[in-house]
């Protein structure tokens, strides 16, 4: 179990990473490109909000399926419900307390093509 927190500490989330992580992802959709978040994917049941549930706000756009969650006090993006698989969350690994900032850049980074999402194709 790992603890994930926002910048101000109002939001605290417990996540269960069931595997060793050797790769993180970035998405190039219009939202994620601006956030610059490096994330990993976990199942919905592996995320539990410990503190600050009322401080978490949600932003949705386009198809309104994905839900981007952030702290309403400091604005930190903590996690998002994924459009491609709504049974999973993308969790912002920069919010995991046990990970130092410089460690994030040692991971192999895979870019997800959110600009050309399969659910947008007709």
CATH topology: Metal Binding Protein, Guanine Nucleotide Exchange Factor, Chain A
Helix-strand sequence? EEEHEEEEEEHE
Helical stretch tally: 2
Report the strand count. Answer: 10
Largest sheet: 5 strands, antiparallel
Major sheet strand order: 4-9-8-7-6
Percent in helix: under 10%
The domain tally reads 1
- Sheet/helix structural class: mainly beta
Shape annotation: globular
Low-confidence stretches: none
Q: Architecture in CATH? A: Beta Complex
Strand content: 35-45%
User: Ends: how far apart?
Assistant: 40 Å
CATH class, named Mainly Beta
- What is the residue-mean pLDDT, rounded to a whole number? 87
What does this structure look like?
The chain is mostly beta strands and 122 residues long. The protein is built from two helices and ten strands. The strands form three sheets. The chain has a five-stranded antiparallel sheet with strand order 4-9-8-7-6, with no helix packed on it. A three-stranded antiparallel sheet has the order 1-2-5, with no helix packed on it. The chain has a two-stranded parallel ribbon with strand order 3-10. A hairpin with a 5-residue loop joins strand 7 (67-71) and strand 8. The mean pLDDT is 87.
What are its keywords?
single chain, 122 residues, mainly beta, Metal Binding Protein, Guanine Nucleotide Exchange Factor, Chain A, five-stranded antiparallel sheet, three-stranded antiparallel sheet, globular
Quick take:
The protein has helices at residues 30-35, 101-104; strands at 2-5, 12-15, 23-27, 39-43, 47-51, 56-59, 67-71, 77-81, 88-92, 108-112. With 122 residues, it is mostly beta strands.
């Amino acid at each position: 179990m790992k603890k994930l927190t926002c910048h101000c500490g109002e939001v605290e989330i417990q996540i269960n990473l069931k595997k060793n992580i050797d790769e993180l992802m970035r998405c190039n959709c219009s939202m994620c490109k601006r956030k610059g978040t490096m994330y990993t994917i976990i199942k919905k049941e592996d995320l539990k909000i410990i503190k600050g549930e009322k401080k978490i706000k949600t932003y949705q756009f386009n198809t309104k399926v994905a839900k981007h969650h952030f702290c309403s006090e400091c604005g930190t993006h903590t996690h998002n419900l994924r459009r491609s698989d709504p049974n999973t969350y993308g969790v912002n690994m920069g919010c995991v307390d046990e990970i130092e900032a410089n460690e994030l850049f040692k991971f192999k980074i895979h870019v997800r093509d959110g600009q050309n999402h399969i659910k947008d194709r007709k």
